[in-house]
Every structure is written in structure tokens, then in C-alpha cells.
Write a sequence for this structure.
């Protein structure tokens, strides 16, 4: 694995030290479905929201691998999985898209807000009838002079209820064509944009999600991220980052969960022996470790390949499959190992299973990842 | 085989095996006419990057660069010398 230097370790320590405070009260917030604004302010104060972004716009200029390493520390130390998800969504949805594809003017205006967290970021991709099949989207952006006029709706917008900035993927050409999608940066208070109420969900409840509605919403043409028709490529780039950055947080969570299970299995006795002495229990914990280390290897190897400018289209799909499914298996094993306590809400163990179930669904379902791998090998 | 012919051969082999080369015009819109879909576009970009040693994740590119055989050839032509000059290859 990678030999991290002192500076990288110090950044991670900053995040880890903060994590316990960020996660305090996570069980109660999960039950209430509340985003923790005070925790957000704590993260803002560290400057870590600008971790991978250009220092010219308030970022810390860290590379992808360092960003992942620090965020893995967030997952290991902060028990609020929904909050962790909101942090990664904020960074990748707007910041990563702007940094790679934004014009100089867009970067100057919006990246500082992303870096200091004064405006929370979100992206709007999915529609009620176009989930994994994004080419079937119906939200249109019609050119009218120097503005685009948006009409339609988006569903499953993570951070939607709390966001100040949205990258909205719209149809600007022939439906079905990969050259017909345009990514537009939309401010929350833009007339014609209506933000729906938070939608109740199974897990990641502290990361609010909603629908967005566009009714003749006029957005400057200059807010196109990456140019007209480039939305699919913007999204492909953002999804690579989303998978690496968001799922490395999961490996931090898996590490914490694994250690909790080891500790529990060494102290919890049944029939006069620690339950860890029974192979039916220890095998589950070993499988948790194998899943964790396999996930980390895929994540960091794929990121290193991306940094080396190699094509990672297949690797990223494999990584997403491996990590998201290993996380579900790990969370399920933790519930089983903790028995009745794992099933009770007050210990926060069942919550992690509910959170993990989102993984094989968002950022492209497991089924779509397999389809993508099949296409890349020519099937 | 010229670069244009090589690109056309790849497109036909991978996305339209029933079409003969003479029937695919150099400027035929591969994207809007459904020859290359979204996953196909990623495969096409990956192939161009590997075949011509272009760091496609680093350069500015749009779907228009891959809209036709002619556009792809132009994209390759315009990036090979630039990248070599900048030492990015």
C-alpha cells in the first residue's frame, strides 16, 4: 500500500480528531432524519471541505489519493454515516465538476463557496423515469439568447434540501444521444427552481434528499459546466471521483465496525467462552477484514491508475461493485455478531446496515456496473 | 492503413459490424444516430487514448470530438503534436 508522508498523516489526524464530535448524537439524528448543521460548521472551520481544490480558490490543493486518505479517516472516526455522505456529495457534485470542467469565471465565482462550505453542493441527475438510464432524461434546457430555460424535474437529489448550489444535468440535444446532455450550475434562489420537501428513506437519514422542480427556470448560458453537450463526460468524471471519494469513507466505517466486532467477540461470552472462539463467529469477522482490505486495494489502486492518467472505466465499475457489496456484507455481519444488541436501534449497529444498503444503488447500481464492465470487454 | 481508415475500422467492428466501410460516411453522426451510445462513447474514448497514447482524462474533450469518424481523426491529429510538445505523452 501507499507510504503516507507526515503532512498527509497530519491532515488525516485533523479529520480523525474531529470525527468523534461530528458523530455525537448520531442515533438520535438518524431517528429524527436531521442533518447536523453544527457539525457542518465544525468541518468548515478546518478547511477540509476544500481538500482537493485549487488553492487559488481557497482549496488545500491535495491530490486525489491524499483526499481519499483523509476522508477514510472521517469514515473511521465519525459514526454519522449520513453526514459523511453529505460531505463527500458536496465535494464531488459541484467542486470536482467545476475544478475539471468549469470556466475561469465559474471557478472564480463558485469554487470559493464550495471550499469554505458556505454553499452546500448537490447534483441533480436522476429523474422519476430515468434512474440508471440517464440518457432517458426529460428535463430540458432550451437556449434563449444568453440563457437556458429549464423545465422538468429531478428525483433523489442528495443534499437537495440543504444545498445552495446544484449541478443539474439537462437535455439540450437529441434524446438518447450521449452528446445531448449539458451540466448547468444553478443557484438555489433562481426563480423557477422549486426545492421539494425532504423525502423519508431507509438509511443515510441524516443526509437529506429531495426532488427538484424546474418551471421556466432561467439559467445563464455561461453556467454550463464543460460546455453545451458535454454533460455526459462531466458526469463520467464526477462519478469516478464520487465512487473513489464516497466509498473510501465506507472503508473507514468498515474499519471501525471490524474493530468493534473484534472487541465484542473477545469480551462477549456464551457457554463459558468468548464468542470469538467459535469459528462460526470468527469466520464472519475474518470475512469482514478480507472485504475491507480488498475494498481498500481496489479503491487506492484504481485512484493511483487514474492519477497516472490510465483509463479506469472498467476498474471504477469493479471498485464500486466490490466496495459497496462488501460494505453491506460487513454491516450485516456486524448485526449478526452483536445478536439482539445489533438489532436494537440504540446501539447504532442496525443503522449502519440501513446506510450500507444505499451503496449498491447510488452512483450506478450493481447491475449497471456489471453492464458497464460487460460493455467494456466487448459484450 | 490511414488513421481515418483505422478509426472507421474500429467503429465498424465494435459498433456496426453489419455495415461496410463504404457505407459509413466520414461525417456521419455516430452519436445522434444511435451507432455509439453512452457506454460506447466511453469505450471509444478509451480506445483512442490507448491506441494513440493520448491522456484523454487530461485534455479538453467534448462528445463533439467523437461525433463522427472525421471528428475523431481531427481530435487525434490535433492532440498528438500538442501533447508531444508539452511533454505530456
Amino acid at each position: 500500500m501507499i507510504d503516507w508522508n507526515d503532512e498527509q498523516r497530519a491532515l488525516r489526524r485533523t479529520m480523525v480528531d474531529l470525527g468523534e464530535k461530528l458523530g455525537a448524537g448520531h442515533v438520535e439524528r438518524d431517528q429524527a432524519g436531521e442533518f447536523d448543521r453544527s457539525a457542518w460548521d465544525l468541518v468548515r472551520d478546518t478547511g477540509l471541505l476544500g481538500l482537493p481544490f485549487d488553492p487559488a480558490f481557497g482549496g488545500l490543493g491535495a491530490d486525489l489519493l491524499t483526499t481519499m486518505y483523509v476522508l477514510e479517516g472521517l469514515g473511521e472516526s465519525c459514526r454519522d454515516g449520513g453526514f459523511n455522505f453529505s460531505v463527500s456529495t458536496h465535494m464531488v457534485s459541484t467542486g470536482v465538476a467545476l475544478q475539471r470542467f468549469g470556466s475561469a469565471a465559474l471557478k472564480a465565482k463558485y469554487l470559493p463557496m464550495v471550499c469554505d462550505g458556505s454553499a452546500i453542493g448537490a447534483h441533480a441527475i436522476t429523474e422519476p423515469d430515468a434512474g440508471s438510464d440517464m440518457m432517458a432524461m426529460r428535463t430540458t434546457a432550451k437556449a434563449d439568447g444568453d440563457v437556458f430555460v429549464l423545465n422538468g424535474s429531478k428525483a433523489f437529489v442528495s443534499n437537495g434540501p440543504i444545498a445552495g448550489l446544484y449541478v443539474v444535468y439537462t437535455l439540450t440535444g437529441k434524446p438518447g444521444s450521449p452528446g445531448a446532455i449539458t451540466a448547468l450550475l444553478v443557484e438555489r434562489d433562481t426563480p423557477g427552481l422549486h426545492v421539494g420537501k425532504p423525502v423519508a428513506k431507509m438509511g443515510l437519514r441524516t443526509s437529506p434528499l429531495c426532488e427538484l422542480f424546474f418551471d421556466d427556470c432561467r439559467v445563464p448560458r455561461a453556467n454550463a459546466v464543460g460546455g453545451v453537450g458535454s454533460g455526459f463526460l462531466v458526469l463520467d468524471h464526477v462519478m469516478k471521483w464520487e465512487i473513489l471519494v464516497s466509498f473510501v469513507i465506507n472503508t473507514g466505517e468498515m474499519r471501525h465496525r471490524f474493530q468493534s466486532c473484534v472487541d465484542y467477540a473477545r469480551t462477549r461470552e456464551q457457554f463459558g467462552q468468548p464468542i470469538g472462539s467459535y469459528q462460526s463467529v470468527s469466520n464472519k469477522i475474518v470475512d469482514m477484514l478480507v472485504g475491507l482490505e480488498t475494498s481498500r486495494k481496489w479503491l487506492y489502486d484504481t485512484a493511483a491508475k487514474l492519477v497516472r492518467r490510465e483509463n479506469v472505466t472498467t476498474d471504477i465499475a469493479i471498485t464500486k461493485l466490490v466496495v459497496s457489496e462488501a460494505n453491506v456484507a460487513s454491516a450485516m455481519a456486524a448485526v449478526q455478531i452483536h445478536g439482539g444488541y445489533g438489532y436494537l436501534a440504540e446501539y447504532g449497529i442496525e443503522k449502519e446496515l440501513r446506510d450500507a444498503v444505499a451503496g449498491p444503488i447510488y452512483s450506478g447500481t450493481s447491475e449497471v456496473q456489471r453492464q458497464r464492465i460487460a460493455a467494456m470487454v466487448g459484450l | 492503413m490511414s488513421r481515418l481508415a483505422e478509426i472507421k475500422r474500429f467503429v465498424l467492428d465494435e459498433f456496426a459490424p453489419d455495415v461496410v466501410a463504404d457505407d459509413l460516411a466520414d461525417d456521419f453522426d455516430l452519436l445522434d444516430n444511435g451507432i455509439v451510445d453512452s457506454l460506447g462513447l466511453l469505450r471509444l474514448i478509451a480506445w483512442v487514448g490507448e491506441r494513440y497514447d493520448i491522456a484523454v482524462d487530461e485534455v479538453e474533450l467534448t462528445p463533439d470530438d467523437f461525433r463522427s469518424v472525421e471528428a475523431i481523426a481531427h481530435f487525434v491529429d490535433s492532440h498528438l503534436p500538442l501533447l508531444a510538445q508539452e511533454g505530456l505523452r
Summary: The first strand of chain A starts at residue 121 and ends at 124. Chain A has eleven helices and nine strands.
